[in-house]
């Protein structure tokens, strides 16, 4: 049987899903990723990791169901760059609420967003809680890719840098123009102790042109398909491990059955 | 060069698109299509027709660029059926506005929605005007599939009937369960002169369970892959012809260049 | 007894309406109609046709109740022209939802929008479904006027052309300045096979200044009060016939009684 | 020439209105007014007073233009009563913003809401400021009717009481059922010093069923057409006097010309 | 025990509040108040009056609970002046709804807004009704300060004038710069019979720069701490008297218990 | 001179702030914190840390200005508990946008949210970017308190646990009921490798009743005022250090001057 939820019929959803089922939704982006990577980068990575993880997880007995990727998401930090196709925070929020409402009518009680675009992370976090409160779903989100960076990136390989470029070079080498890859690292930030992109105590509001016109934050110049293959494989393994943990996860408050959920 | 806009880089969008470029966006749905068809039916048909039409149109010299399918759309008429993943009218509206705003920052001035789900048609019509007024884009929408019906459908083969079932049987035979196909035609409506689904003077508000629990409106029982192939081919031809006309279309009011567009 | 719902008292609404009652709401517009017609044109035609049809329909035994005209509606295609008083799509949408919610608390289960402004048609279609889904009402919309056109209009007499001008010349001759009437027909569109205003496969987004500064789309120069009288009479007859059909219309899903309706 | 703005053509609006022009919009309601008065009461009174005042004011040289009545407004305090057709606060707010935006594109710089429904008063006050800030319009609102009450009303003749009943008995005697008129006065409130309907320091939130099931707040039993005629005449005189003052009103900040207004 | 609701624990709220409890919320503003008064003026006065009144009222046996001040509110009339920190009408509206929803889950059934900013008055009035209708709360709003004016103000001491300046000079003399106080009275308005700020039949839309650049409407030059002390004391007395009346206030419709309230 | 921005007059804001000024806004919450802590806990900690940090930072030459605390924020995870006064995500979002718009009209170009409530963190992150994109402000957010936990908390002292209880015991010992403090640690989560509250790859949606009825997540039983004093002091030091870094922070894209900012 297919692992793609949308390839089932409506009645088959009602019959085949149960309260152990986990719905997996990749969330990507269509946004500026420098001159060397395609706009589709984040959607490509999220879709590929999620699909592989669902296939592998099912082979290990997890009750996983893949939904189509949310391709267009909140790329407001790249709104200045032609080609970026972005939803406002309000629109992505409404989309996530609507999906949660819809999923809550199936027997499944768990939803996981496998997210390929950092600009969605915070809003997904807010939505996770809203979907739990409004619809009683158990909700989760996780990054599709790994944050691993090249040393030249000084920890700032967050967008179109070594890791993303390598993974795309592995998945779709035809879409990468390494001759156009250029390093763009906000070096002065390396000296900062409080302000940073992730894991720092101070979060800051930025758009990608804050760091120059290239649309890159990181150093893609050393990226290779081999590194990409390795990163991709690790990402999938991590995702499967996380889905395994999600499958067993429960809290003291029982999730309501589908018949009582909904708004 | 790729015909998929999102496979370009941001700078490549700025370089390769011009004011003759036409952006094509398939709009599908994930919704109940009876027991014999997959939820993905409308998205599948819209994506397939649009992609074929873009490829064929480009081979004829049209400057066409395909964007990823809007998979989740306004399936409120099937909201009652588990498996339907639907956006509210407000959410789809916001999504369309956001996409228009984004496209208006590229050199392209024309957008075409190739729509696989009848429940989107009216809202796409409203959005066409809004995107023109707000962003100066020339906007168009058209059905992906053909309305051709089997005689047994009495003109009501609008959802999961002969045409859709045949086309899916052609495109993805593995997703069709002909043994579960059953005829569900609102026969009393055949006598009506004013009220009807399309092309009648009186439009009416319906949800698919108004016509029984099957989620079908039409008669899929006679559907064949051969008929599907023929319908699909015709749909693509019509789409290419329409895109050719769209390419030459202009009005007295000049479309503003990208630099002046936007809100 | 009055046929105007709002001339009843509240308790009289509860006593006199039943589940066979049909609430009729004319929807007009206050918008630019060229130099020869008043802004009120669409509201005038919708109000007049709807009122006549309600009177005539009641004389034939239909249980019809007229509500006041929604005078201000979605005239965004004429927003550029001073004098146009327009609601955004969002505002008209909210208004229709609010009216549906209100009507659902009366015993009546059917609502018909008799629409004088083409710019409302698509949004009324979307709202018909929303009111059915949210409130269980049976909802309908129909054009107030006839689309009949003069040959010189090449099928494009959609705004301030022969038909509308004739009908206003019949209803309110004092408001028509035939000396200012001028033909404005988008002739190049006559050769198009796919793109068109109504009944064509490709819908397009337009504002009325796309076709020049006159605010007319059609040819009003041959309009006469006699033609208007005939068109008006036919429109009323068609509306009565449609209301008769609506009165008998039912689907398999029973409409819920008022006590269970509402959000 | 007509005094009804919507009876002008678009070009005639641009030619005939100037920055001395005042646009007058009656705001009514369709809401429960007890068993003896029609739902249309407030819309009837607002429309009648505004129209008479415009006619009389123009005869005295004021540059007044009447727009069609906003018939459906914010009757949330009567939402419990079938027959009440009410807009939410949000919807009326959006409607007022949209109208302000539209009027700001005409040469007129002043707008007056002549309001027949107390439930709109506060929101109109909020909107007056918003329209001034957003569009630079000079905005005003005033009650259509007089607050004059019968002694038996203890000052509480605010809804369907002596004054409103008398005026409707004057304007449309066919719509009044005096045999169903009954006194419903919240007598305990007469002893209150701080809490009250209007002019008291403490405003309170009420719905009309807080005062019993009749939907009346006041004492209509002594109403007469003669009193109504007198009240109506006085209302019109007051409205004309107020419009005269509005016509001369200015502040230190110059109103921007139409070409600079708008958002 | 504390009189500050937020100093209780959650369980203590459930134990200590009953259906006789009254929740008091001061509503202030951070907005331009001329060169002589601080932005915090309205929030300061509202907080001080409300707190004193709660303390005094409790000493007289009233079951009063103070919530933290809504400091940022709808100061759109001063949006032009740097330093004004204002919420839009929509945002304040949503905030009030959210607070009402929250309060409705406690045992308390009455809420009083003690308002220090005139620009909130109308919207609070609209919200009072909405909270009553949606959540069944008994809702009240009242001005924190007294409208008493100096004769030189001609009745226009509504913003940063004699009364407000005196009260701040009493409460926080360090924040008043009497050397910068200047009279700014819209003298021409003194002759008007219909148009005025409060208690006049015609309400008008104004922003504070309509009356010149000073941001003052009134005459603060004669303000003294002594007058402020007296005004403050009177304000508190009036508030306590009003709260006493509110405590005894009831309507025929019983307020629903907490368990049934909420949306 | 005061360090409280709202104690300045409007003109003083324009004179005393410059593009080096940093506006500091504490964000708290009024929400269930177990039986032993007051609802005001988060607002108290955020206000206290922010105020101390502003005072200390100014003494070190930083150009800091404190605005009043946003007391009511997004406590949806405690919405089930009476006493929680929460804004929806949409309302807090609108509030943050409105504040950003207001601040952008002052000379200051930097804004820092010092946040006492974890439930706001993600939305503040989303808003930081929105305020930068829309208004050109440099925006920052940071936790007010330290995450330091007691060993018994197994890393889960995130709400009303050791750290928060200690700090409140230091700041307001009168508001802490140590006899009601009880440990509530989601022990099974300690074994999880992927799913966790902070710093884990998988984020999950939870409401506080998921972990039992106590409203505590952590172990407050060992909390002491001394530990609270130490934690508080460290928090202030960290905040000052972070503000120092923020003061020097810049990106390649220059922040626009106030005159060009705003929407």
Automatic annotation (TrEMBL), chains A, B, C, D, E, F:
<dbReference type="GO" id="GO:0046872">
    <property type="term" value="F:metal ion binding"/>
</dbReference>
<dbReference type="GO" id="GO:0009231">
    <property type="term" value="P:riboflavin biosynthetic process"/>
</dbReference>
<dbReference type="Pfam" id="PF02633">
    <property type="entry name" value="Creatininase"/>
</dbReference>
<keyword id="KW-0479">Metal-binding</keyword>
<dbReference type="InterPro" id="IPR024087">
    <property type="entry name" value="Creatininase-like_sf"/>
</dbReference>
<protein>
    <submittedName>
        <fullName>Creatininase family protein</fullName>
    </submittedName>
</protein>
<dbReference type="GO" id="GO:0016811">
    <property type="term" value="F:hydrolase activity, acting on carbon-nitrogen (but not peptide) bonds, in linear amides"/>
</dbReference>
<comment type="similarity">
    <text>Belongs to the creatininase superfamily.</text>
</comment>
<keyword id="KW-0378">Hydrolase</keyword>
<keyword id="KW-0862">Zinc</keyword>
<dbReference type="InterPro" id="IPR003785">
    <property type="entry name" value="Creatininase/forma_Hydrolase"/>
</dbReference>
């Amino acid at each position: 049987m297919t692992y793609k939820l949308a390839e089932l019929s409506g009645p088959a959803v009602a019959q085949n899903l149960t309260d152990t089922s986990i719905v997996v939704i990749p969330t990507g982006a269509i946004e500026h990723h420098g001159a060397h990577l395609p706009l589709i980068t984040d959607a490509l990575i999220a879709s590929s990791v999620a699909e592989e993880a669902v296939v592998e997880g099912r082979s290990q007995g997890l009750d996983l169901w893949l939904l189509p990727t949310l391709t267009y998401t909140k790329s407001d930090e790249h709104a200045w760059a032609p080609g970026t196709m972005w939803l406002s925070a309000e629109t992505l929020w409404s989309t996530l609420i609507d999906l949660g409402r819809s999923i809550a009518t199936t027997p499944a009680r768990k939803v996981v967003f496998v997210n390929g675009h950092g600009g969605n992370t915070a809003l997904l976090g807010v939505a996770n809680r809203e979907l739990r409160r409004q619809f009683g779903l158990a909700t989760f989100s996780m990054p599709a890719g790994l944050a691993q960076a090249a040393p030249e990136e000084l920890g700032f390989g967050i967008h179109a840098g070594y890791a993303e470029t390598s993974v795309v070079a592995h998945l779709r080498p035809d879409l990468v123009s390494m001759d156009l890859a250029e390093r763009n690292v906000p070096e002065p930030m390396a000296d900062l102790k409080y302000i940073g992109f992730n894991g720092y105590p101070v979060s800051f509001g930025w758009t990608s042109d804050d760091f120059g016109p290239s649309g890159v934050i990181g150093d893609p110049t050393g990226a290779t398909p081999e590194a990409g293959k390795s990163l991709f494989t690790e990402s999938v393994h991590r995702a499967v491990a996380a889905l395994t943990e999600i499958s067993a996860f429960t809290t003291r408050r029982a999730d309501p059955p589908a018949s009582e959920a909904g708004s």
